[in-house]
Amino acid sequence: KQVGVIEYSVDSGSNWTQVDLSTGTDLHVSELSIPSTSFNIWFRYVSGNAEVYGLVHKAGVNGVLFHKLAATGSSAQQWSAQVGSSSFKAGLAELKPNAVAVMLGTNDQTGSTRPNVFKSYIQTIINEIKESVPTADILLLSPPDNQRGSNVPMPAYASVMRDIAIKENIAFHDYQQDYGTDPQSYAFGSDRPWFSADMVHPNPDVGGGLPLAERLRKIIYNG
């Protein structure tokens, strides 16, 4: 939660400009004043408790600006509670996204969350996104199943996400079709070891994340 004060310098520490984050919580977006020429930017804490999640440099050329809002190990239940906060919704609105993609499910398998309960969490998330950024396109993404042998297979979550997408008239893509129907066919140690030894995450050493990235690239650029 952003409840403190930070400051930044663009001239090697000669001058500092404060950014007061004490009036809000959760996600806070601030516009910084930077030189038009090359520079280094320094940050330091002043007071309170704050964490810098990222820095966006906007250029005056066409292209895609991609924000990733994530938390390791987080579930749909946690996100459904987070996105309803006034500060998070204000921060999302301030980012002004043209499209918002939601990809959850893996960590919900860990707790064996029932599909109908998972569906309620995703519905809440979609409702809050629509309220925060009414004109943004929304895309639901279902991860491919992993090899942990969860009590709830990923296709069960994909099914309820598909139902929500139809009901809400938003986009949906199931990554299962990009990996294959049998999770063991792309498991660690198989002939196509796209997943890591932890059986949960794609293996970057063999390009295991490329199907995810390539599909998203196609969606962004080709629609």
In brief, what are we looking at here?
It contains 7 helices and 6 strands. With 223 residues, the protein is α/β, with parallel strands linked by helices. A 3-stranded antiparallel beta sheet has the order 2-1-3, with no helix packed on it.
Attribute tags:
single chain; 223 residues; alpha/beta; three-stranded antiparallel sheet; three-stranded parallel sheet; 6 strands
Task: Give the helix level as a range of percent.
Answer: 25-40%
User: Which spans of ≥5 residues are poorly predicted at pLDDT below 50?
Assistant: none
Strand content: 15-25%
* Helix/strand structural class: alpha/beta
E-strand count: 6
Roughly how many Å apart are the termini? 35 Å
Question: How many helices?
Answer: 7
Overall pLDDT: 90
Radius of gyration equals: 20 Å
What is the element string, with H for helices and E for strands?
EEEHHEHHEHEHH
Characterize the main sheet.
Answer: 3 strands, antiparallel
From the spread of the alpha carbons, the general shape counts as: globular
Which strands sit side by side, in order, in the main sheet?
Answer: 2-1-3
Description:
- It is a single chain.
- The protein has 223 residues and is an alpha/beta fold.
- Helices cover 32% and strands 15% of the residues.
- The protein is built from seven helices and six strands, in the order βββααβααβαβαα.
- It has helices at residues 76-82, 86-95, 106-110, 115-132, 154-168, 176-179, 210-222, and strands spanning 3-9, 17-20, 42-49, 99-103, 137-142, 171-174.
- The strands form two sheets. The chain has a three-stranded antiparallel β-sheet with strand order 2-1-3, with no helix packed on it. It has a three-stranded parallel β-sheet with strand order 4-5-6.
- Helix 5 links the parallel strand 5 and strand 6 (171-174).
- Helix 1 (76-82) packs parallel to helix 4.
- The radius of gyration is 20 Å and the shape is globular.
- The mean pLDDT is 90.
